[in-house]
Specification:
With 109 residues, the protein is α+β, with helices and mostly antiparallel strands. Helices cover 51% and strands 16% of the residues. The protein has five helices and four strands. α2 runs parallel beside α4. It is globular, with a radius of gyration of 13 Å.
Length: 109
């Protein structure tokens, strides 16, 4: 499986996933830290990929959805964006709704 297939597989098989520098417990950059904290505040489980531990994903993820920066957050297979968008969505309540809907939708399949 090539790297873009691995990325696609991770996006499609996880209702909520963040590609970030580090892990939610030990983020390696401020943007990744704030974005993963926002996801944690939604109260649902989410997947993560530490792009620093996989150079192939680090190099190729920007090509996957034509988004040049990290973190990248996908909900229900769709890129919602990075840190700023995630924080705006959290503040408006959209993030919590989208995360809960994605997680509940996956559970009923």
């Amino acid at each position: 499986m090539d790297v873009l297939e691995r990325i696609d597989d991770a996006v499609k098989n996880n209702p909520v996933i963040i590609f970030m520098k580090g892990t939610p417990q030990m983020p390696q950059c401020g943007f990744s830290s704030r974005a993963s904290q926002a996801l944690m505040q939604c109260g649902e489980e989410f997947a993560y990929v530490n792009v620093l531990s996989d150079p192939e994903i680090f190099q190729n993820l920007p090509r996957y959805a034509d988004w040049p920066t990290f973190p990248q957050i996908y909900i229900d297979g769709e890129l919602i964006g990075g840190c700023d968008i995630t924080l705006e969505m959290l503040e408006s309540g959209e993030l919590q709704d989208a995360v809960k809907k994605a997680v509940k939708g996956k559970a009923s399949v």
